[in-house]
What we know:
2 copies of one chain form a homodimer.
Chain A: H1 2-10, H2 25-34, E1 39-43, H3 51-61, E2 66-71, H4 76-84, E3 89-92, H5 97-107, E4 113-114, H6 116-127, H7 136-147, H8 151-158, H9 162-176, H10 181-190
Parallel strand pairs in A: 1-2, 2-3, 3-4
Helix pairs in contact in A: 7-9, 8-9
Chain B binds a DNA duplex (30 and 30 nucleotides) through α7 and α9.
Amino acid sequence: xxxxxxxxxxxxxxxxxxxxxxxxxxxxxxxxxxxxxxxxxxxxxxxxxxxxxxxxxxxxxxxxxxxxxxxxxxxxxxxxxxxxxxxxxxxxxxxxxxxxxxxxxxxxxxxxxxxxxxxxxxxxxxxxxxxxxxxxxxxxxxxxxxxxxxxxxxxxxxxxxxxxxxxxxxxxxxxxxxxxxxxxxxxxxxxxxx
Amino acid sequence: xxxxxxxxxxxxxxxxxxxxxxxxxxxxxxxxxxxxxxxxxxxxxxxxxxxxxxxxxxxxxxxxxxxxxxxxxxxxxxxxxxxxxxxxxxxxxxxxxxxxxxxxxxxxxxxxxxxxxxxxxxxxxxxxxxxxxxxxxxxxxxxxxxxxxxxxxxxxxxxxxxxxxxxxxxxxxxxxxxxxxxxxxxxxxxxxxx
DNA sequence: CATGTACTCCTGTTTTTCAGTGATTTTTAC
DNA sequence: GTAAAAATCACTGAAAAACAGGAGTACATG
Lengths: 194, 194
């Protein structure tokens, strides 16, 4: 449905040639082994593999192809991951025809393009930073808490003292501005951290 | 983008007339006050309002219009809510042209249509019933727990004894097959209950 | 009317979490 | 190479949650 939409938005554009489409990561790689376009519009949600991972793979094999991330989700974490995996831009699925054209024309020059809304949330999350920045250990502890482990169990799992786990736990509560496990886990879940 | 896709998939179909499209709940209602189609393909993610709520509203005002839910998410809770709000079916955005045509032709006869994949998850969740059935009180207690309230605070809020809250809490842990608050909240969050 | 379900409440005990304070060692980054 | 950030650990006491087991009331449904 989305592929059809993009095709119909682009097919009459001069200067743009539609080379093909793929509906999975594997078929995309198979296609690329035959011919390589200048730009790929890559969905994040693929049946066999994450578009985020595929992006990295494609960029490794074919560094000259520019990739535009494509997703329904206007989520800072996704945008970040796509860009850090070599994507040149990010377009939302509710983008207008003009936006897509702008995006393609921008990235083909080697520049970065972000959808208007995407750029907004990107900037906002940069400024307000609503997602607390967690350290490696804190993330580990958080996800083990979410699994239902107690401090002692977590300590055993990570080969550290229960007291240390307790400290990480306190820091997590502070960073999330919560006062107990329940609200901590809820917030973390809402932020898609766990 | 998606609208373009559907339009291009349907525009050459005989027996189907494309009456228009809207990109928000409010513009949809404005459109419907002018003319009413037989079928609406309604996205769940709208900028101003949830498609789930809009579905209810449209069905109340125009009971004769059949609504097909449309979403990227193959989530049982969404499907359920759409159907209980009067939708006649649910189609995923990766549906084929044939699926959309089938869906439209099915619902227009007053029957229900579910996308293949949607029907799968629907049935699966029906059989295994991974979502525990909660009572009214349990839902209340659960959401207050998720807010970070303690048993005493919840008791005060609901005008019941802390002991009762404790009992509900025990039942919640049992129903979710969890052993503490952390994993309870995580599961509930994943099931979109809170 | 018996059975089941939901809601209510109780007494204890044990385990876990939360709060506060303080300190050492490793890593990381500039 | 040094300053900042992260990770480590300890102690105390209070608060909260988890576990166990029992028990009464209301209400609907078969």
